[in-house]
Amino acid sequence: MKRNVILLVVTAAFPLLMDLTNQQFYIGFGTRVLIYAMAAASLNLVLGYGGMVSFGHAAFFGAGAYIVGILAVEGLRSAWITWPAAVATAAAAALVIGALSLRTRGVYFIMITLAFAQMMYYVFVSLKAYGGDDGLSMPGRSTLGFGLDLAHDLTWYYVVLALLAAVLYLLHRLVHSRFGRVIEAIRENETRAAAIGYPVYGYKLLCFVISGAIAGLAGALIANQASYVSPGILHWIQSGTLMIMVILGGVGRFWGGPIGAAVLLALEETLSGSDLLGPYALHWQLPVGAILLAIVLFAPQGIAGLAAKKRHA
Amino acid sequence: MLEVRGLAKRFGGVVAVDDVSLQVAAGEIHALIGPNGAGKTTIIAQLAGSLYPDSGEILFLEQDLTRTPLHVRVKAGLARSYQITSIFRRFTVLDNLALAVQARSGSSLSFWRPVAAERALFDEARSIADEIGLHEKEDALAANLAHGEQRALEVGLALATRPKLVLLDEPMAGMGPEESQRVIALIQRIRARVTVLLVEHDMDAVFRLADRISVLVSGRLIATDFPEKIRMNREVRRAYLGDEIAA
Amino acid sequence: MSGILLLEQTLNGLQFGLMLFLLAAGLTLVFGIMDMINLAHGSLYMIGAYLMASLAQATGSFWVALPLALLATALVGAALEMSVLRRLYERDHMTQVLATFAIILIANEAVRLIWGSQPIMLNAPPGLTGPVELPGGMQYASYRLAIIAVGLAVAVLLYILVTKTRVGMLVRAGASNREMAVAMGVDIRRLFTVVFSIGAALCGLAGAMLGPILAVQVGMGENILILAFVVIVIGGIGSIRGAFVGSLLVGLVDTMGRAMLPIAFAKMFSPQVASNLGPSISSILIYVLMAAVLVFRPQGLFPARG
């Protein structure tokens, strides 16, 4: 509990510090980290806790973003309408994709989630009216009312932080609830879970939908971040990136998503932005790939796992 | 309580179960014996719902369960333990049992309240752990238990669902004599409230526990009778018991 | 719709499907025998195309470069298998997905470092640049016909290899039951490396042959990889026959869908609707097909495993 309070204080103080030291750019960076933390946490629910290797999570992340973008372009900018719409759409997509995909398992499941996500990509990208290949530019961020101007980066940061905190709190209660137990049991031994009386398919589907819904919210936020929706957000490379975040941070561990998001984005920022790689800065994905490979092969528990080991040692 | 009629199952060209019919009466301990590969586990799988038969019927308490899914049968009161241990390895013994208790006590579509706060759940899990002799290993990870202890947990999980009929598939597999005695004692204790269909190779246990024995050879039921009669049965001796029974 | 257009699109679909088969065949064997999901398969396709382009330029001849490119890609595949992929066979699928995804990142950047970010040129051989007249008076690109010929030849060769040779028998045994194959004393490690290298060579062939038609650029592997996945889901894991049928199905549906659907829509709906709906529906056609197969036969059309 104390750790969480410190974390909250630090993340709350961060943008003020950046503002003071005239590093406003990092406020935007911080907001991106918070949004991806939410997206990664949503994937961790289905991947780490549920054991479902869904390689199409970008579909829900992107669907949420596009819904907000499309509604904004059509004149609807109130967050009170567009954000729930994004969540509902992502949840509906998760329901349909999940219902079909969860009838399979193993390698099939992975490929099918991948294929469906790619299908979503083509659906949205082919909408010429909404940007197509070039992406969708929004007239501005959503409106929240209460005198809060989300165009102001500092305000925006705190709104995102509040939402992330709320989502993480709800997730925390979820994974420790009866539902959370069942999901983990299904991950551990699906057959036995059924053999003691749990309708496994239904639980997996529900978990999948909840995870998709949260990703949809994160998508709504990322669209607002730059007031622009890039089609790349639906691409399976994005799904892979989210997976990298989860495993980097520690799959199945509560803080895995947020930690992974922070580390990966920081890595990306330092490698591509700084002089670390010199003239090879454009090729920052290569060392990231190499690091990921090393982690997967040698430290599969991720960063949260290493930290846990240290505490027990 | 359980009535099986004309059960049949083939895998490709192999007939695993051939027109098997048997009844299990309420309150009895009914043993199913036979040589390896006779089809015993296939029958258990079909009774439990892991497999659906090609033909035949399974009636449990007058209900036709032939093609109902696993989890529905459990709710109806029919539970199973596995021949190859299938437990929740990364959960503690207590959590394993609590999971089974949770399945039958209220809805698990509960997203807010922490499970750890539900004392009733864990109290009951504790009493089951006690009953199966794992009282001292409650907080041990299932993966870290000794083989015999894991088999006990295996049976415990089935019992925790408070079944009316429990299918025990070789509960004593791989156990030494002392551990086997404990399982025999456990089955004798639970018979008061659970009907048992027991698949076992340990003839000592079978003849001590069973009220009736059915003998399965190459997918066919060749005899169903009281233990003494089975012992005398020429066909059974020829096909299976032979020199295995001393007296 | 004219008959010529129909024939042309059918041939295009056939051509695409056969190249897709080259990728899908290797992929399905790796899934079926090693139970490993390999996202880097598309990278081998890309490497094959790039190696072909460089070798064609170095040797000045398409036909001399082709076998060299195949060999080189097979070697890259073997090296990859022996160094990294071998460690993944025993791991869970998520680990395999992430590791091979990492390999894609590394491969893409490595290619960028060596060949630059711009797409590079790969030309069809001089003898095959013009059209050929088909019976019925229709003109069709001779190079595309060559692709169809090569694709069919390879399919026949693979069929002979898998059904008539010893290696093929081992492969089929492994695909349907790995434990059994091991128990029978098959040298699994070497078999895996051989299977993987053959798969890599097939990828290289597809990359080399498609290079003159599609652009040789970084990321070309990812797009075709997903199609290969769809093929395997439809055809069934571990089954070459399934991969063949699936590839042709996907190739034809995708190609003809993209060509025919906008025309059909233009006849049925207003041009406004047709121009918006046509492209989106034709691009998701194969996914709808995949979803349909999943509903009725979740194991695919010809699953190798019982």
Report on this structure.
- The complex is a heterotrimer of chains A (313), B (247) and C (306).
- Chain A has helices at 2-20, 25-49, 58-73, 79-101, 106-125, 153-175, 178-188, 190-195, 200-226, 236-249, 256-273, 285-298, 302-312; strands at residues 136-137, 228-229.
- Chain A is mostly helical and 313 residues long.
- Chain A has one domain.
- In chain A, strands 1-2 form a two-stranded antiparallel ribbon.
- In chain A, α2 crosses α11.
- The radius of gyration of chain A is 19 Å and the shape is globular.
- By secondary structure, chain B is of the alpha/beta class.
- Chain B has one domain (2-244): P-loop containing nucleotide triphosphate hydrolases (Rossmann fold, 3-Layer(aba) Sandwich), CATH 3.40.50.300.
- Helices cover 36% and strands 24% of the residues of chain B.
- Chain B is built from 9 helices and 10 strands.
- A 6-stranded mixed sheet of chain B has the order 6-7-8-3-9-10, with helices on both faces.
- The longest helix of chain B has 14 residues, at 147-160.
- Chain B starts with a strand and ends in a 6-residue tail after the last helix.
- Chain C is mainly alpha-helical and 306 residues long.
- Chain C contains 11 helices and 2 strands.
- Chain C has a two-stranded antiparallel sheet with strand order 1-2.
- The radius of gyration of chain C is 20 Å and the shape is globular.
- The interface between A and B is medium-sized, with 25 and 36 residues.
The total of helices of chain C stands at: 11
What is the name of the CATH class of chain C?
Mainly Alpha
Return the CATH architecture of chain B.
Answer: 3-Layer(aba) Sandwich
Order of helices and strands of chain B: EEEHEEHEHHHEHEHEEHH
> Could you tell me the mean pLDDT of chain C?
84
N→C terminal distance of chain C: 43 Å
Strand content of chain B: 15-25%
Radius of gyration of chain B: 18 Å
Average pLDDT confidence of chain B is 88
Largest sheet of chain B: 6 strands, mixed
Order of strands, main sheet of chain B, comes to: 6-7-8-3-9-10
Biggest protein-protein contact in the assembly = A-C, 44 and 42 residues
- CATH topology title of chain B: Rossmann fold
> What's the number of structural domains of chain C?
1
Spans of chain B of at least 5 consecutive residues whose pLDDT stays below 50 are none
* Main structural class of chain B: alpha/beta
Could you give the distance between the termini of chain B?
32 Å
